[in-house]
Amino acid sequence: MDHFLYRDGVLHAEDIPVAEIAAEVGTPFYCYSTATLERHFRLFDEALAGTEHLVCYAMKAASNQAILKTLAALGAGMDVVSGGEYARAKAAGVPGDRIVFSGVGKTHDEIHAALSGGIRQFNVESEPEMAVINAVALELGVKAPITVRVNPDVDAKTHAKIATGKSENKFGIPISRAREVYAHAASLPGLEVIGIDVHIGSQLTELAPFKLAYEKVAALTEELRADGHDIRRLDLGGGLGIPYERNNEAPPLPVEYGAMVKETLGHLNVEIEIEPGRLIAGNAGILVSKVIYVKEGEDRKFMIIDGAMNDLIRPSMYEAFHEIVPLKEAEPGVDFTKYDIVGPVCETGDTFAKERNMPPVQSGDLVAFRSAGAYGAVMASEYNTRPLIPEVLVKGDQFAVIRRRPTFEEMINRDTIPEWL
Ligand SMILES: *Cc1c(COP(=O)(O)O)cnc(C)c1O
């Protein structure tokens, strides 16, 4: 559920007509709903009620400071995957003991910054990384809390580019080697082993792969405890999918996920940590764009819009589907037309949808991409010297630009000219 609904035929973001925001901000832009962000965070928090837990928002999904502050105010932790994200989380006021550091390639400097600034735990992905965390901790005279990310070798049944839990993926250490790696970790004086981490992929639409992975983690917990490790926290990663096609998809709900977690791991008496990204931000954001031209091809119609692959890369990168709707709801009985919906970028990949059935549109009309809040703005680039598009946050009947569009001059002035030119 989200808060982008038609009222009297006009698409609203909470209590504001989206077209009013467009008139002020210009298109294209991202628009987020505070109520939806909050609702999704609470769904997870409530799904784990009764169990000691922390929901750490995977901020790579959407990392604007205003979004982070909105979630942090509800008590969210953050899952970060770079020094930049760590700095963003701190800048948004998230205390270090609510920040988890994930990712396969944490550098010495990133580890140093996180250990100095405070960290809940590092999710360690390899033995070389473990050695560096140990060394930095000893340098700083502290103990680094760690889990080891295990790769359970389960098929997440999702798009190949976002599956992370098979043995052929670069993530984690094989679960078969876990005991050996934990023994090694326990021997390093700069580390404090506190738990186990697993994350098998993104946009999962079934519970079964999660359950399979968590059963393996449960068994490993008992083994590691028997080996003498104090396993007191399980980080279960993120990955729960969202319905991009509302009428055809019904991925499990957070409450169902939470029930499965309790059933699979409840007997272990551990603190549970989860790292949802997409489910919190995905349906909390739309991308608003304007139709520039409608071009009649030989056998198809092209809807050329001012948004492009550099603003939202998911369709070209993952063959992702986004519902695209007009800001003015179609009149009942109107004949729909099929459009290929494309952006202005000079790449054939700059295609958002083929033969999409839509009410007829004209140049100047506004459309919204639904479910664009996660992995949208954060993956944008300035390809074709197109400015990064603004982000807007709505709360009730108020809205604010939370990142403005840079001017061409600002973009150009980031280049510097060597003295020989
Ligand atoms: C990407 C990622 C997540 C979030 O995944 P979603 O599908 O957005 O929920 C969580 N944990 C880790 C380690 C990740 O890499």
TrEMBL record:
<dbReference type="GO" id="GO:0030170">
    <property type="term" value="F:pyridoxal phosphate binding"/>
</dbReference>
<feature type="binding site">
    <location>
        <position position="347"/>
    </location>
    <ligand>
        <name>substrate</name>
    </ligand>
</feature>
<feature type="binding site">
    <location>
        <position position="375"/>
    </location>
    <ligand>
        <name>pyridoxal 5'-phosphate</name>
    </ligand>
</feature>
<feature type="binding site">
    <location>
        <position position="239"/>
    </location>
    <ligand>
        <name>pyridoxal 5'-phosphate</name>
    </ligand>
</feature>
<dbReference type="InterPro" id="IPR000183">
    <property type="entry name" value="Orn/DAP/Arg_de-COase"/>
</dbReference>
<keyword id="KW-0456">Lyase</keyword>
<dbReference type="InterPro" id="IPR022657">
    <property type="entry name" value="De-COase2_CS"/>
</dbReference>
<comment type="similarity">
    <text>Belongs to the Orn/Lys/Arg decarboxylase class-II family. LysA subfamily.</text>
</comment>
<comment type="pathway">
    <text>Amino-acid biosynthesis; L-lysine biosynthesis via DAP pathway; L-lysine from DL-2,6-diaminopimelate: step 1/1.</text>
</comment>
<feature type="binding site">
    <location>
        <position position="318"/>
    </location>
    <ligand>
        <name>substrate</name>
    </ligand>
</feature>
<feature type="binding site">
    <location>
        <position position="278"/>
    </location>
    <ligand>
        <name>substrate</name>
    </ligand>
</feature>
<feature type="binding site">
    <location>
        <begin position="275"/>
        <end position="278"/>
    </location>
    <ligand>
        <name>pyridoxal 5'-phosphate</name>
    </ligand>
</feature>
<feature type="modified residue" description="N6-(pyridoxal phosphate)lysine">
    <location>
        <position position="60"/>
    </location>
</feature>
<keyword id="KW-0028">Amino-acid biosynthesis</keyword>
<comment type="function">
    <text>Specifically catalyzes the decarboxylation of meso-diaminopimelate (meso-DAP) to L-lysine.</text>
</comment>
<dbReference type="InterPro" id="IPR022644">
    <property type="entry name" value="De-COase2_N"/>
</dbReference>
<dbReference type="InterPro" id="IPR022643">
    <property type="entry name" value="De-COase2_C"/>
</dbReference>
<feature type="binding site">
    <location>
        <position position="314"/>
    </location>
    <ligand>
        <name>substrate</name>
    </ligand>
</feature>
<keyword id="KW-0457">Lysine biosynthesis</keyword>
<protein>
    <recommendedName>
        <fullName>Diaminopimelate decarboxylase</fullName>
        <ecNumber>4.1.1.20</ecNumber>
    </recommendedName>
</protein>
<keyword id="KW-0663">Pyridoxal phosphate</keyword>
<dbReference type="GO" id="GO:0008836">
    <property type="term" value="F:diaminopimelate decarboxylase activity"/>
</dbReference>
<dbReference type="InterPro" id="IPR009006">
    <property type="entry name" value="Ala_racemase/Decarboxylase_C"/>
</dbReference>
<dbReference type="InterPro" id="IPR002986">
    <property type="entry name" value="DAP_deCOOHase_LysA"/>
</dbReference>
<dbReference type="InterPro" id="IPR029066">
    <property type="entry name" value="PLP-binding_barrel"/>
</dbReference>
<feature type="active site" description="Proton donor">
    <location>
        <position position="346"/>
    </location>
</feature>
<comment type="subunit">
    <text>Homodimer.</text>
</comment>
<feature type="domain" description="Orn/DAP/Arg decarboxylase 2 C-terminal">
    <location>
        <begin position="29"/>
        <end position="373"/>
    </location>
</feature>
<dbReference type="GO" id="GO:0009089">
    <property type="term" value="P:lysine biosynthetic process via diaminopimelate"/>
</dbReference>
<dbReference type="Pfam" id="PF02784">
    <property type="entry name" value="Orn_Arg_deC_N"/>
</dbReference>
<dbReference type="Pfam" id="PF00278">
    <property type="entry name" value="Orn_DAP_Arg_deC"/>
</dbReference>
<feature type="domain" description="Orn/DAP/Arg decarboxylase 2 N-terminal">
    <location>
        <begin position="35"/>
        <end position="281"/>
    </location>
</feature>
<keyword id="KW-0210">Decarboxylase</keyword>
<feature type="binding site">
    <location>
        <position position="375"/>
    </location>
    <ligand>
        <name>substrate</name>
    </ligand>
</feature>
